[in-house]
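Lab notebook, design round three. We kept the backbone fixed and only want residue identities now. Task for the bench partner: fill in a sequence for the structure below.
Input structure tokens:
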């Protein structure tokens, strides 16, 4: 991809499931960041993919930390690099459970400290590594091993929690749009201070679809509008092209839901509730982008 390193920082034989988009995202993130990068990884699928010492499938330094600690470690590491005059990229790469649930207090504190790091939450909408239990980021209606009848609460609105920290840069992205993703990573790394990205990461075993459908599912999430892509620089919000298109002519939400076993057997009332959540979010984002709220 133009503008990214030709080198690979993830070796081909990781233990990721077939069709894993979170490892695809990480491949693009590292190619966008280049070799002068340190990765901070809490307990999550990525900490399995990195391999077991003395072997590793990653070709850059990785600091593996406790589940709740990624943002605190990344922030401290960034301060240490700055103290010795180094510009090394510090990227925390954490799952949704490690971000919206257990790591949220460390993340909030780190975002307030003004240290120079990028925090990326790859969101497969469940605790994948431990067997697909629900997280705060699991969407309404989704079946997980701890919500076998479908989740009864809405997905936690992480992005508005992050927005309340008034960061120099935050963005949402999706594994199915790699050019957009790379551009946002490079922009984030070009800005000094704490930055945040939230990236949708379809997961075949968790979302219960065939591994060959990973890109299609990601595209449908954006085309329906259930996953919105945008950038926020302090209080200025800019919608990304595919989300602007989805606001004008959305793909049918039912199609996105039907593609995934985790939404099987949902009644119309649930679909209506999911649509209501989605439309409310898009209305708020549009108003913010147009400066009318
Ligand atoms: C304090 C603590 N509690 C629980 C665990 C067990 N644990 C390890 S990874 C994980 C789930 C991680 O989920 P997420 O952050 O969404 O990443 P994913 O596995 O989906 O990539 C859990 C519960 C742990 N390592 N530490
Ligand atoms: S469970 Fe999901 S996120 Fe984890 S390695 Fe498998 S496909 Fe990737
Ligand atoms: Mg997860």
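Proposed sequence:
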């Amino acid at each position: 991809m133009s503008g990214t390193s030709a080198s690979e920082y993830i070796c081909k034989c990781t233990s990721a499931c077939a069709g894993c988009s979170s490892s695809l995202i990480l491949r693009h993130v590292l190619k966008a960041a280049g070799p002068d990068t340190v990765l901070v990884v809490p307990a999550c699928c990525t900490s399995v993919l990195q391999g077991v010492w003395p072997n590793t499938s990653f070709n850059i330094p990785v600091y593996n930390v406790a589940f709740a600690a990624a943002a605190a470690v990344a922030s401290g590491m960034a301060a240490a690099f700055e103290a010795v005059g180094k510009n090394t990229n510090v990227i925390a790469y954490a799952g949704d459970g490690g971000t919206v649930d257990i790591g949220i207090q460390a993340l909030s504190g780190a975002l307030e400290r003004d240290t120079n790091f990028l925090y990326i939450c790859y969101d497969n909408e469940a605790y994948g590594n431990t067997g697909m239990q629900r997280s705060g980021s699991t969407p309404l209606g989704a079946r997980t091993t701890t919500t076998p009848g479908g989740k009864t609460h809405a997905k936690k609105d992480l992005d508005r929690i992050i927005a309340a920290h008034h960061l120099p840069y935050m963005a949402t992205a999706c594994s199915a749009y790699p050019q957009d993703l790379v551009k946002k990573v490079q922009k984030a790394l070009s800005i000094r201070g704490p930055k945040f990205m939230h990236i949708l990461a379809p997961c075949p075993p968790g979302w219960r679809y065939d591994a060959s459908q990973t890109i299609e599912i990601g595209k449908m999430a954006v085309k329906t509008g259930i996953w919105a892509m945008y950038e926020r620089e302090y209080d200025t919000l800019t919608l990304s092209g595919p989300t602007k298109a989805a606001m004008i002519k959305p793909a049918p939400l039912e199609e996105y839901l039907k593609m995934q076993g985790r939404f099987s057997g949902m009644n119309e009332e649930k679909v209506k509730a999911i649509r209501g959540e989605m439309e409310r979010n898009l209305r708020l984002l549009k108003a913010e982008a147009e400066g009318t709220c």
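Keep this in mind before ordering anything: The two ends are 37 Å apart (CA to CA).
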